[in-house]
Design goal:
- The protein is α/β, with parallel strands linked by helices.
- It has a single domain, classed as Aldolase class I (TIM Barrel, Alpha-Beta Barrel).
- It is 41% helix and 14% strand.
- The longest helix has 28 residues.
- Bound molecules: phosphoenolpyruvate and manganese (II) ion.
- Phosphoenolpyruvate binds next to loops.
């Protein structure tokens, strides 16, 4: 059955599951992404201040997150919006890692910044606007750091696979795919959460898949629902925006959860994550296709 997909994604054989490669497991600090543990990444859209970042890091860690997210280099819709703290932001992220033990995922926007960001980050985020920036992907791949590759706003799954294949070709096996919503004719939400693409990616690719319910919906009240859908669709983890006071956030406040909202979401997700982790364990133990386990 899975063979019928191979033609559609024939250009990117390295991304597809093979007889000997069912699942890539990405090591990060003392845990893994794509293994038997469901991994939650959480934190502010942008690194703003030490107090903002540290309070968020402590709070999301207590709620079960393993990875702190936070942009120091920000791609913005308007050139007049806050563009990120740059190096100062990276230093604050490193400080938060030291204080909490959380790993760090942060975006790199330019190939000239790759070495600098790789010094501070455990995972390099390639943002949706840069998914087709080949020179950035090559530079990030060469850094040797795991990469979180976000699906472009108008990219198909095959386009995302092509970007992933490029990173693999440049010697970096630790590529993580991310569904963060795409542009469609629907305008009720910021983007359209293409949850079925998570099922497709998990079905045909060995790379871990992360769901981003924050950018997918653009609305704080929808984030817990989209997160649950992401877990049920088979994602290996989530990336969620959390801020101490979302209404004053310097970016993406509308879609950021406050601490209590994130805590509540994690509590209500727990049974779903437990089910998903049971499936992950079974799949790894038996080297099974996800669809066989789910079906
Ligand atoms: C982000 O993670 O804050 C971000 C800018 O994401 P995306 O590239 O998916 O828009
Ligand atoms: Mn954001």
């Amino acid at each position: 059955m899975r063979e019928s997909w191979q033609g559609r994604f024939g250009e990117t054989p390295g991304v597809l599951k093979g007889a000997s490669h069912e699942q890539t497991i990405v090591p990060v600090l003392d845990f893994e992404i794509g293994g038997s543990e469901f991994i939650t990444m959480a934190g502010p859209c942008s690194v703003e201040t030490e107090a903002q970042l540290l309070s968020t890091a402590h709070s999301v860690r207590r709620a079960g997150a393993r990875i702190l997210r936070g942009g120091a280099f920000k791609p913005r819709t308007s050139p007049y919006s806050f563009q990120g703290l740059g190096l100062d932001g990276l230093k604050l992220l490193a400080h938060a890692r030291h204080e909490t033990g959380l790993a760090i995922v942060t975006e790199v926007m330019s190939e000239t910044d790759v070495d600098l960001v790789a010094e501070y980050a455990d995972i390099l985020q390639i943002g949706s606007r840069n998914m087709e920036n080949d020179s950035l992907i090559v530079a990030a791949a060469r850094s040797g750091r795991p990469m979180l590759l976000k699906r472009g706003l108008v990219a198909t799954v095959a386009d995302l696979f092509r970007a992933a294949q490029l990173a693999l070709d440049y010697g970096n096996p630790n590529v993580i795919l991310c569904e963060r919503g795409i542009r469609t004719f629907e305008t009720a939400m910021r983007n359209t959460f293409d949850a079925a693409s998570i099922a497709v990616m998990k079905h045909v690719s060995h790379l871990p898949v992360i769901a981003d319910p924050s950018h997918a919906t653009g609305r704080r009240d929808l984030v817990p629902f989209a997160a649950r859908i992401g877990v049920a669709a088979g994602a290996d983890g989530l990336i969620v925006e959390v801020h101490p006071d979302p209404d004053t956030a310097w970016s993406d406040g509308d879609q950021s959860l406050d601490f209590a909202e994130f805590d509540a979401m994690m509590v209500s997700l727990a049974p779903w994550i437990a089910l998903r982790e049971g499936e992950m364990r079974l799949r790894l133990e038996n080297n099974l296709d996800v669809a066989e386990v789910a079906g």
